[in-house]
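Can't paste images in this forum, so I'm doing it all in text. The chain is below; anyone willing to post the predicted structure tokens underneath?
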Amino acid sequence: MKKMLWMLLAAALVLGSCAKAEQEPVKAVEKAAEVSVDTVKAAGEAYFAEYPGSRIIPADKVFAAIDADEDFLIVDIRSAEAYAAGHLKGAVSAPWGPAIADALNWLPDDIPVYVNCVTGQTAGQTVAVLNMAGIQAQSIKSGWNLGIAKTEGYEAYVETTANMAPDASGVKYDPAVRAAAEKYFKAIPETGSNIIASAALKEKMDAEEAMTIVSVRQPDAYAEGHIEGAINIPFGKDMQKQFAQLPKDEKVYVYCYSGQTAGQTVGILRMLGYDAVSVKSGMGNAGTNGSGWSVEGFPTVQ
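Text version of the structure:
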């Protein structure tokens, strides 16, 4: 009888150990997932908590850096066709979308990276996401069409020769942040440019669709006139502290002056789980070629 009791006790201990062993990996996976989410969230919040004042560089300063033979890399995220027609000297092509996810394999993390797009808006998103991953990225102000091509003497800095991507295999990324960044750019074919035209936004407002509109212009500009219903979260250092008031169950439309800082804001918000979209050309100004909410004649309130 005693022998039988000992055998039953031993079996119970073995079964208990097996059950515990089966549960531990599940807990480990759940804990790893929590750490991943926290890591991405921390990187997104740090973008504005540690904001240096600007991550936009004027074209003439890029020209000066080329003349001085400074150590940097230009990444052109326009289409392959636009790149082939002419790009800045030394620029490497990585068209907006999955190609930027692939570029994480070679983008350097020890020198500045200047990102060029068409008007500066998708470059803004790109710069935000790349900085979260540890890349020292800045967008070239107003992109090719409204910035580079409008700067006197730009022709001297243009070439058509394709440039090879550098070898930057030693770059170290946080695995969770890299995975989130890759997901962001690989989703572009489905999400589009994450930009909406003013007319399309006005239609959605007239249809009374559920939405939150955010002006990231400074308080004085907001007071002079803003899109009806918009809340003001001024762009810059520590603006992430106000993100908690934004809903994650409806679209968030973000606008600025010309679309560039809204692009950065949208990049971070989307990485943090918000369904954010920027308004094309923002409110608009003399440099947006007639594009933008105000210059297109849509109403504002004070």
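The mean pLDDT is 90. The two ends are 89 Å apart (CA to CA).
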